[in-house]
Fold this sequence. Notes:
The protein is an alpha/beta fold. The protein is built from 19 helices and eight strands.
Amino acid sequence: MSKINQETWKRILSEIERDIGTNYDFWFGNVGYSIEQDDFVLKFPTEHQISFVEKRYSDNIENAIFNVTANKYNLKFEILEEDTVNTVEKDDINNIISRYTFDNFVVGKSNEFAHAAAFSVGESPGSLYNPLFIYGNSGLGKTHLMHAIGNYMLEEDPNLRPMYVSSEQFTNELVEALRKDTTPEFRKKYRNVDLLLVDDIQFLIGKEGIQEEFFHTFNVLYQNEKQIVVTSDKPPKELKGLETRIITRLGGGLIADIMTPDIETRIAILRNKNEQEGFGITDNIIDYIAENIDSNIRELEGALLKIVAYSNLTSREVDLDMAHHVLKDVLEQRKKIKIDSNRIKNFVSYQYGVSIEELESKKRPKNIAYPRQIAMYLCRDLTDLSLPKIGADFGGRDHTTVIHAVEKIETDIKKDPNLKNTINELRRKIKSN
Ligand code: ADP
Ligand code: MG
């Protein structure tokens, strides 16, 4: 049978995506293909992926191929070698991923504010809250919300132009444009839109040239009353290393945070997924997963999929024993992280924009001394290190200095909910991998 072109391949993939919904990225995010006579060979990076996809999605794939090509091929599966060329290409018109919608975003206490903000921006872009800045840790739904705004906008008016870009992609494209002398095209692409979604802006830290371009892109859009949405892992004023004028702009609209989901939200997300995908997992298993995986929704969904995959591969019903067995690896791995003063210094250094050397130095200005006290407090809290050892790890200080730091931070936490939040988040990051 004849070869197919990239366009046809993309249509087959969209057909599969439409059919299987939210799991698409997880299983097909890195699929490749080749055609050998009557064989349609799908290639995946791991054996595990192959056996699961073959078992669960063969029918969907065959249908998709038939719907698009009107040919019946024999389906084959192979390991994807590094240099295979025919991997997925993202649609680069607006980069909006259609399956991330408001409809399938579960709202709970931890994300209701960000969700409400995103929704009202979707309803009246460019007017109320511009820019909208959403921040929170990884895997909590920031990217999902961004795409949801884009999809909502397109649904309301297909003539509008949303554009999603990660900060990395923005960087790469600009570098490429400078190299090829195509900056005007680059500018046209990002300045001629109704909605610009810029994901993970913290990647622009330390990249001055890119920041400069972003600043101008921002201004043009803003002046034309076009909506801008930006995400990051921290609030604007904590993005040390980003130009002040950008921080000011980013903080000039509405700032919304997403926090780690509480147990009710985690259960609701798993139930929703379970129902959507028809996995048929029982509530006691869902509760078990939700109780054990508490910091990241990506991991939460991953755990559910892993259990389903395991059950499919072994043809066994899912029960608590199996869930326990499958999640053991995930949970063990977490326990293995070694928390020592270096790990704590790393996180505190990043959080407060001071260097490790400064944390270990004798310097006393507040912007260094305070993060140092926080780091000592966290060492006391999260490790078994003795007071003298902690003192030694912070530039050979006396143990009374450590006691003083611990007491000071304890008192401050009681008075300042923001500080309490920051330290809780730090503690969580230090403990998770
Ligand atoms: P982030 O961008 O904050 O790192 P993502 O938006 O990529 O996180 O979310 C990670 C995964 O969790 C995605 O598959 C997303 O669809 C899912 N997810 C996150 N929050 C929710 C939610 N509230 N309801 C349903 N799915 C969610
Ligand atoms: Mg993201």
